[in-house]
Amino acid sequence: MKPADSGWRDRAACAGQDPRRWDVENLPADDPDGAAARLCANCRVQVQCARDALVPVDITRIVGTGHLEAPDLVELSGTVRAGIIT
Ligand code: SF4
Question: What is the pTM of this model?
Fold first, then answer.
């Protein structure tokens, strides 16, 4: 089931961009927090992004085995969400 307002992703500043830019490992080592804040500074959907970052992801749905297994919920980490390193 998709969240009620999943369309916010289309309005994101990162929509259509290379997602690797938001990987922590690709942030400059001398100022990762500042770089993270700058990546999302002009995004109009930071609130929705932050809220979404708090929801665990069911990996079984991503890989398409959700109908066979119990949910395997994980927290995503290692990425920038709403200007913050998660
Ligand atoms: S706040 Fe940052 S990570 Fe979240 S949708 Fe906007 S640009 Fe993407």
Answer: 0.73
User: Ligand 1: distance of its center to the CA of 28 in Å?
Assistant: 18
The 10s digit of each residue's pLDDT in 14-26 is 999 999 999 999 9
Is 1 among the domain residues?
no
CB of 82 within 6 A of ligand 1: the answer is yes
Range of the domain at 62: 7-85
Cα separation, 61 vs 28, whole angstroms: 33
Whether residue 33 lies inside any domain: the answer is: yes
Ligand 1 atom closest to residue 49's alpha carbon, by position in its atom list: 4
3-state SS class at 72: coil
